[in-house]
Specification:
Number of domains: 1
Structural class: alpha+beta
Helix content: 55-70%
Mean pLDDT: 87
Shape: elongated
Distance between the termini: 63 Å
Low-confidence stretches: 1-25
C-alpha cells in the first residue's frame, strides 16, 4: 500500500472529479429537463403526429356531406353501329340516309360534368364523424397519458443523477475521513502505541472505499445516460450541473375520494366504450336503404364542329335485401366488443387503483425511512467522532474505529438513498393520479 503514501489516493479523487466536474456555471433544473422532453421526445412526437392525422380524419369524414363533382373528357373513334349511332345522336348529326349497318368511322369528343349526392344513408355519415371525433379525442388522451408517464420518467432519472452524485460525494468524503484516520494511526504507529496491522487494516478499508468511489462514478455516468434517454436526446452533458434539491418537508399525500379520476387511461377506456357503441349503431344502420341523387351535363362534338349539350338527372334508391347474414353477425360482433370494452374498463379501474395504492404506500414507506435515516445519520456521525477521539487516546482499538467509519458511510448512503427515493415516490403518486401532465399544462397556461 506504499503507493497511497505517494499521493495515489489524491490522484484517484482528482481524476474522478475531473470526469464529473462542471466546467460551466449553467445549471439544469428538473422543469427544464421535463420541458425539453416534451419538446424533443420522439415518442411524444409520434403521438402528436397521430393526433394531427386523427383531426384531419374528422374533416375527411365531414366531406361526405358535400356533393361529389367530377369533370371528365374523352375522345373516341369507332365504326361499331350502336356506338356510332349514339355518337351521331349526341352530336345531333344523325341522318336517315346513313347506312345503319355499315356506318363510317365516327369520331366523338365528349366533355362531362357529373354530380352525385347521397340524400339519405341511414345515418352512416354522422356515425363516421362521431367515430373520427372520438378517435381524435382518444389520441389526445393517449398523448396526455404518454406525457404523464414520461414526465415521471424524467423526474425519476433527474433524481437518479442527483442520487448517484450524492453517493459519489459520500464515497469521496469517506475516503477523506479514512485518510484522516490513517494519519492518526500513522502518528500512533510512529509513537509505538499501535502495531503495523492497524495501519494495514486502514489501507484495506481505503482500497475498498476507492473501489466504491469508482463504482459510484460509473453509476453516475449510467444515471446521466438514463436521464438523456428519458428526455429523448443527448441534452444533459457531463459538464452541466443539475440544480440541487433543497431540503423538503416530509408529508403524506392527501387521500382523495377518487384518486384515479383524472388518469388519461381511464378516460381512454370510457371513450373506447362509446366507440364500440358507434360500431353497434353502424351495424344497425346497414339494414336501412340509401338514396342518392345523380346528374350529368355532357358536351359532344365531331372534332372541329360545335359542341351539342345534353343532360340527365335521376334518383337511385338501394336496399340490400339479403347479404348472407353479414349484417346480423356484424351487429352481434359489435355488441360483444361493447360488452368486452365495459369489462376492460372495470379491469383497468382495478389496476389503476392498485397502482395508486402502491404509489401511496411507497411514499409512506419512503417518508418513514427518511425520518429514520436522518436520525441515524446524526447518531453515526457522533459515534464516529467519539470513537476517533477514544482511539487517539488509546481507549479504542482499530476494529472499533473502522467499524464506526463503515457504519457512518453506510448510513450517509442510506440517508441519500432514502431522500431521493422519497422525492421519486412523491412524483409517482402524482403520476398515479394523472396530475403530472396537468401541472405542466397549468404552468403553460393551457
Amino acid at each position: 500500500m506504499s503507493w497511497m503514501n505517494r499521493g495515489g489516493l489524491g490522484w484517484i479523487v482528482v481524476g474522478l472529479w475531473m470526469v464529473v466536474r462542471p466546467v460551466t456555471s449553467t445549471a439544469v433544473s428538473q422543469e427544464e429537463c421535463v420541458r425539453e422532453m416534451l419538446a424533443s421526445n420522439p415518442d411524444l412526437k409520434a403521438s402528436q403526429e397521430r393526433l394531427v392525422a386523427s383531426r384531419e380524419a374528422i374533416d375527411q369524414a365531414r366531406s361526405a356531406w358535400y356533393p361529389r363533382v367530377v369533370a371528365s373528357g374523352m375522345y373516341s373513334r369507332t365504326d361499331n353501329p350502336p356506338q356510332a349511332f349514339m355518337m351521331a345522336l349526341n352530336q345531333k348529326t344523325f341522318s336517315m340516309e346513313q347506312d345503319f349497318n355499315h356506318p363510317p368511322d365516327t369520331d366523338n369528343l365528349r366533355g362531362s360534368m357529373g354530380v352525385q349526392y347521397r340524400v339519405y344513408d341511414g345515418g352512416k355519415r354522422n356515425l363516421d364523424i362521431r367515430q373520427a371525433d372520438l378517435q381524435a379525442r382518444l389520441n389526445q388522451l393517449a398523448l396526455e397519458a404518454t406525457q404523464n408517464a414520461l414526465i415521471h420518467e424524467v423526474t425519476r432519472a433527474y433524481f437518479g443523477v442527483l442520487q448517484a452524485r450524492a453517493f459519489m460525494q459520500v464515497n469521496e468524503e469517506a475516503l477523506t475521513s479514512l485518510a484522516e484516520s490513517r494519519r492518526v494511526v500513522s502518528e500512533r504507529l510512529n509513537a509505538g502505541a499501535v502495531v503495523k496491522s492497524d495501519l494495514l487494516n486502514v489501507d484495506v478499508k481505503m482500497a475498498e472505499a476507492q473501489e466504491d468511489l469508482i463504482r459510484s462514478s460509473n453509476g453516475w455516468t449510467l444515471a446521466l445516460a438514463a436521464l438523456n434517454t428519458a428526455i429523448g436526446k443527448h441534452w444533459v452533458t457531463a459538464d452541466r450541473t443539475l440544480d440541487p434539491v433543497r431540503e423538503v418537508e416530509i408529508r403524506q399525500p392527501l387521500q382523495r375520494e377518487d384518486p384515479i379520476g383524472r388518469r388519461p387511461e381511464l378516460a381512454i377506456s370510457r371513450l373506447a366504450i362509446k366507440a364500440r357503441q358507434i360500431e353497434v349503431d353502424r351495424g344497425t344502420s346497414e339494414y336501412l336503404p340509401t338514396l342518392s341523387a345523380q346528374g350529368s351535363l355532357d358536351w359532344d362534338s365531331d372534332p372541329g364542329e360545335d359542341f351539342e349539350r345534353s343532360y340527365w338527372v335521376g334518383l337511385v334508391a338501394e336496399w340490400e335485401a339479403f347479404d348472407g347474414f353479414r349484417r346480423k353477425h356484424a351487429v352481434r360482433s359489435a355488441r360483444a366488443s361493447l360488452r368486452g370494452a365495459e369489462q376492460e374498463l372495470a379491469a383497468l379501474t382495478n389496476r389503476l387503483m392498485y397502482d395508486w395504492n402502491d404509489a401511496y404506500l411507497q411514499v409512506q414507506a419512503a417518508s418513514q425511512r427518511l425520518e429514520v435515516t436522518r436520525t441515524a445519520q446524526a447518531t453515526a456521525n457522533e459515534a464516529l467522532r467519539m470513537i476517533r477521539e477514544r482511539y487517539q487516546k488509546g481507549a479504542a482499538d482499530i476494529t472499533d474505529l473502522l467499524a464506526a467509519q463503515v457504519a457512518e458511510t453506510a448510513m450517509r448512503t442510506r440517508d441519500s438513498s432514502a431522500f431521493y427515493d422519497y422525492l421519486v415516490a412523491c412524483s409517482n403518486v402524482k403520476r398515479a393520479e394523472g396530475e403530472l401532465v396537468r401541472s405542466f399544462q397549468k404552468t403553460d397556461g393551457q
